Amino acid sequence: MKILLIGASGTIGQAVAKALATDHEVIAANYSGEGFKVDIGNPESIRALLARVGKVDAIVSTAGLANFSPLSEFTDADYQLALNNKLMGQINLMRLGREYLNQDGSVTLTSGVLSREPMPGSGVISMANGALESYVKASALELDAIRFNVVAPVFVKETMAMMGMDTEGGLSADDTAKAYLAAVTGAMHGQTLDAPDYV
């Protein structure tokens, strides 16, 4: 398969690229770094990327920005970032990208465990993650030519270690990538794939 991977230079993205590249052609796209350039917060940037890449069999996103902050300190900009990037940025990958998918293609987005297991400071991230999961479930009812799913990672051990956190409750990026591989190669549709279930 020919797979467009957005966020390929991130911690999870690199692991997903490695997992997919064993049997598939992976086209990397990033906000910065190697590969095609794209800003998922800008629909025109997504359109330009899709026009350059052309037809693919799958689109996978491990991208999406949103900030941690105490609820009382969230600014208008914090909410807009989560809505425009983490939420609509990924939704637009399906909205705009479905025309570039080959028959029986798939789109896989990224939410996260904070949709159902929030923590202090996760307000806008939990909001975006929960909205993504609901959107995928509802949209799948009207999509019959493509499969549409979302992966919900838990905290990634490599990121936790970088932040000086205890990695005990985390999952490695390589193990997290197994859920994305399942979403791309499996038959599920309208599902939230919890990453620990695929280890």
| Mean residue pLDDT | 96
Q: Describe the sheet with the most strands.
A: 7 strands, parallel
Question: Could you name the ranges where pLDDT drops below 50 across 5 or more consecutive residues?
Answer: none
Class based on secondary structure composition and strand pairing:
alpha/beta
Approximate strand percentage: 15-25%
- Kindly identify the CATH topology: Rossmann fold
Helix/strand order: EHEEHEHEHEHHE
**CATH homologous superfamily caption:** NAD(P)-binding Rossmann-like Domain
Rg, Å, rounded: 16 Å
Q: Outline, from the CA principal axes?
A: globular
Number of separate structural domains:
1
Strand order of the largest sheet: 3-2-1-4-5-6-7
CATH class: Alpha Beta
Straight-line distance between termini: 23 Å
CATH architecture: 3-Layer(aba) Sandwich
- How many alpha or pi helices? 6
Number of β-strand runs: 7
Helical content stands at 40-55%
Summarize the structure in words.
Helix 1 crosses helix 6. The protein has a single domain, classed as Rossmann fold. It is built from six helices and seven strands. Strand 4, helix 3 and strand 5 form a beta-alpha-beta unit. It is of the alpha/beta class.
